[in-house]
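Q: Could you fold this chain for me?
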Amino acid sequence: MSDAQEQSTEDVQEQGSSPPLDPPVLMAELSLEANTQDSKIFEAKDQPCQSFIRMHQLWEEKKLCDVVLDVGGKEIHAHRLVLAASSNYFYSMFVRDMMESRQDRIELKGVDPEAMTKLVDFAYSTKLEITTSNVQSLMTAASLFDFPAVFNASATFLAGQLHPTNCIGIRMFAKSHGSKSLIEASSIYFRENFLDAITSDEFVNIAPEDLADLLDSPLVNVRSEEDVYHAVQLWLAHNPDERKYTLSLVLCKVRLPLLSPNFLTQNVEANQYIKKSLDCRDLIDEAKNYHLMPDKFRHTTEEKYKPRKSTVGLLFAIGGRGSVGEPFCSVEYYDFRTNTWHVGPDLKARRRHVGVACLDGVLYAVGGHDGDKHLNTVERFDPKLGHWEFVQSMRNLRRGIAVGVAGEPMYAVGGLDDLSCYKAVERYDPQSNEWKEVASLHTPRGGVGVATLGKYLYAAGGNDGGASLDTVERYHPHIDKWTEVGPMAKRRAGVGLAALNGYLYAVGGFDDASPLNTVERYDPDSNKWEFVQPMHVCRGGVGVASLGGYLFAIGGHDGRTYLNTAEMYCPKFNTWTMVASMNTSRAGAGVVTCPLTSLGLKFMNSAPSRPESFGSL
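A: Sure. Below is the predicted structure, expressed as structure tokens.
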């Protein structure tokens, strides 16, 4: 220390000031590596949780509270900051200089005091017990004071309480509070459990616009469109004098063109209230025209002419082969309404490149190859029996065969064995259980596609033993004659063929080089084919069928591997969409649609146990 510094210190001491401070310690500059960080962010991740625990404690002890909520005479002390952080309502109240932001006491009206207390508690604790007793008052309060987390949790809780006896009431409650998720959940539940829900007390009191909205869906789970009409009739009968004025609003959601002409005349048109409504009579006339002039509507893609998904039937994939092992005897079926595949009853024999058809609600599997030999055997699945059984065999052993139905008989067309391709055609009569040969094709066709359009049976593509074919033939069953029609643009063997909306679609298949993803559509009026949107995947040996106004392409081979994927074609928008995949990859499977009612499969479970009514929730 210098003399000057010593003198200065002594002077201060003599003047009686504070004791001297220790001299500062001079730190030597630390030597840090160049690659070390200049700074580091410290984060206490549990701090928010700990802070809220402390705030909850303060709230319970009513300490540092700066506002009192008066709810029906009950005082709830709180902290503005916590309320604003949890509720958009209180955030706007306290932050945007509203009158209440300067008040120490705020009166809240139209809310249950207990529900409000639970909301405030939740703002601190982040926990809340939701019960059937408090869910309505909680959701109402959460909606009014904008607690989105509680609102959504309440909606989820109510969705878990849905039952045929309360789903309409819950939907009305959801609609009054603007819960889109609960409206959707209750609507889905109502449509899924339609036949049970329409017997509830809530159904007959539903508003016409709500009923119309619920019926306006392809997912209404019914046995036929008659079920939908009967539901409207039940609703109308509860208060006809008032509801007759809005009847057309609801009736237009019934797909009247899909009702039989007899049902239209004897049940719908005969209804006294429908008779007196001009709008309703117009709907009846439109439905009649659909039956009287089918050619006018054969290309239509309007929703009201499409059957509900539960009524269209099931799509079956039967037999086929995969990458290893023997041909399959397994069967899968596709439920359009739920977009799911299910395991069906096994065939008695393994079959690849099998022909399949549905005749009078009975499935048939015809010919094919079992891995050792070609087959002429035929099996049928009658839902009344619940299993496959053999019927009369064909005359010819063959695979790559296609089967179609024209009127009552079933026709087995073309095919091949190890030596040659066939042009032979056999007709099966289910009444006599006999096969008879009919007029042969002009050209041998193995791997042919067959479908019925109008009164004709069409055979497209295939292989004649030397090359894949683009030619197409049409069979007139009444005169037992095949006639060549316009050829396809592409040669196709192992092609899928199906009819939809008055057109014939040729899907995928193999040309002589590779599998195809292209799709062509045939118009019988112009006798010409045109390309439509190609599939997402190349598919040779593909199974094709129409279902519910759409076209489905199932499985096949893409040139590298066997496929379990499936695609759906929408003719209205000319688009393909991937749908649920099969459980098993397979090509050369028989794919066919069979009516749901014929299978006797019951999709609606027995009614679940009845919970508390919605009014007591």
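A (continued): The CA atoms of residues 279 and 595 lie 33 Å apart.
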